[in-house]
Every structure is written in structure tokens, then in C-alpha cells.
Amino acid sequence: MRRIQLPQHLYGRSFTTRASSEAGLSPARTRASDLIRVSRGILVPAGVPLQGAAALAAYTEANPLSVLSHLSAAQLWRIPLPPGPANDWRIHLANPPTVGAPRRVNVVGHRLALADGEIWELDGVRLTSPARTWLDLAACLSLKDLVAAGDFLVCSHGPDFPVPREAMCRVAELVQVVARHHGGRGLRNARLALELIRVGADSPPETLMRLALVDAGLPEPELNVVVRDPAGRPLIWPDGAYRQYRISLQYDGGHHNTPDQYLRDIRRLETSRALGWEEIRVSLDDLRGDKPAVVRKVADALRARGWRPR
Fold this sequence. Notes:
By secondary structure, the chain is an alpha+beta fold. It is built from twelve helices and 13 strands. The strands form five sheets. The chain has a three-stranded antiparallel β-sheet with strand order 1-3-2.
């Protein structure tokens, strides 16, 4: 007997048995070998690699009260996470406090009191808003990783940047979500992080670089600085800058190993020198350890240009 083809809207995503019934599929069809039952009432097509919202859609469809939260919401918002949480394959699902926490295979159930505006929809999946997701991460991330997550959410670059960027939320929204909730886990961590979050950091290493310098007692580098030529044209966009001393900080990530990027880095260095700026290039190794090398590199450059510790 020929197997009934799956409707197109069910192929390439997770779906509920209720959705399959509404699409006209019989219970016997849902037990066929080309479908995998991953949880009670939730199916996925066999042999179809699912990621992100497509893999998780059915978990919020199965219960209209449930929303993705914590690490699962963070992964859908593409919030950078450290290796441990980033590799957590479990699904974090939350219900209101008035009902029990979700209980499913491979699901971490939560009970969350979510205020108006704290439930959003992304690619058909209900999840906590970026700001609320950040607050919930405060219970499972270190302070520095939470600052990096906050920096990611509020990062924006204006039209003078090669790639303008809009923030996913404003710092004020993070402040509001913290003020709105009392007594929750991680609130102290969140309040400390709010004091350290800045607009303009493109990646966690850039955040860690800034925090290492501040922790060592050095001046805090400014973000979102545009270095211009005498005619006012933007030429350099440092990851951090000390305008008074004309020092720019550039974090070299993995993409800097390509030949094209290597040539662009050389041209940027030459342009910096021509404008009277000193460029300090920082690698991931410079950020490691209790006494990261970036502190010495930046301190030496600052002293050479007239800075003195107070």
C-alpha cells in the first residue's frame, strides 16, 4: 500500500499529532517509519535535519500556555553562550506559575510569571522576549558571560559603519525587566551586569577584553568610535578606543586568518599610523588567564602616550 505523502507544511519541521490529524492524516500514518515520535504527541520527519525554530515549533504548539525560555530561547535569539550552556541540547520550556511546569522527555520545565510584552513569536515559535531571556540567563551564566550576552542584545552601529546594526533591545529594556521582577534567581547577577553592559561590542571576546582592562584598573575603552580623516570621512572603526591618547584596539578573531582579511588589516594599520593613531591588535590568547596579556599591552601603550595611573 502506497504511503500517504506528508503535507508540505508539516515537512521540514516538528509538528503535533493534532496538527497531523487536522491535515487529514490517520493515526496509523503517524506511526509510519518515516516519522519519529520525539516526545508525547510530537513528531519529526525521519532523515530531515532540523535546527532552530523548525525543530522546536511543536513544543509550543502542543500547549498554548508554553513558551521556550532560558537556553533554548537564547539559542533561537542567537545570543552568544559559553561552551557548557551552548552545548546543552535539552529543551527549556516554561508554563505560567498557575499550572505545573512542563514535563516531557528531554525537556527542562520551568514556571515563569511573564509580564505583558515578555512573550514574543519567532518563526512561528512562542518564546521569551530578548530582554526577558537575558534576565533568565542570569541564573545560569557567570557575570562576564551575562555581560557579553547583554552587550550582544544592545549592540548597534550607526550609518557611518561598514555594516550598520540595530539593537535587539535597548539597555533601558534590560533595566525595566530587572526592575519588574523581584525575588527571582539570578537577580543579583543581573543587577551587577547592568552596570557593565555597553553599546557597541560585536562579540564576547570584545566584551571580555573591555572587562579585563577595567578589572585591572585601566581606563575603560570607548566603543562605537569612528576615526575620520581630515575631511571627515570615516576610515577606521576600532573595537575599542582611547580617543585622548589616539589608541585603537582591534580584536583579531578567526576570520582574520584569511588572505583578504590579512591585507585589509595591513591597510588599516597603515591608515591608523598615518592618522596618528596607534593600533593594538588583540588575540584570543591575549585574553586568557588571571593576568591576561592584553592588560600589559594596553597599559604600555597608554603610558607611552602620557597616561598615568591615579
